[in-house]
Amino acid sequence: MAVEVRELDLSNADGGYITTNFDLLRRALKRDKKYSKDLLYRGFDGKNIPKLLKTGRDSGRGKTIFAVTQDYIYNCLGIDPFEYAFDHENPAIAVFDLKHFKEDIEYINWVFKNPDKKLEALVAVYRLKI
Fold first, then answer.
1. Which sign does the torsion angle of CA 1, 120, 129, 44 carry?
2. pLDDT band at 78 (very low <50, low <70, confident <90, very high)
3. What's the DSSP call for residue 83?
4. Cα–Cα distance between 47 and 45 in angstroms, integer?
5. How far apart are the first and last CA of the chain?
6. Poorest-pLDDT segment among 19-28, 76-85, 111-120
7. Residue 108: CB partners within 8 Å, gap ≥ 6?
């Protein structure tokens, strides 16, 4: 089943006082019936959405992606997929199903268990707006 690209308005996020960017993403995933605690989140340049939808990766050709779990985001361990996304002119977030990956040496690098089926790991894609 093809993933539909949606727009996610982050204008109601307040930097974590009440509502974070991740809170809004989680709400969108729940609304779209795609939320699970076992997801990976990757900020990327939205200009690469066509490549992501075709290959399962927004850049490169390897079998590893740089992404973080919900726990990683909640524990503020330094890498924020939203911050990385907003380093680009067309910010976007890709959401992957964790069961399609195994951890690499570092817990922010994930290896596709089946590199020939990368698209099966993709759960959702959101273009970010503020």
1. negative
2. low
3. H
4. 5
5. 29
6. 76-85
7. 66, 67, 68, 72, 79
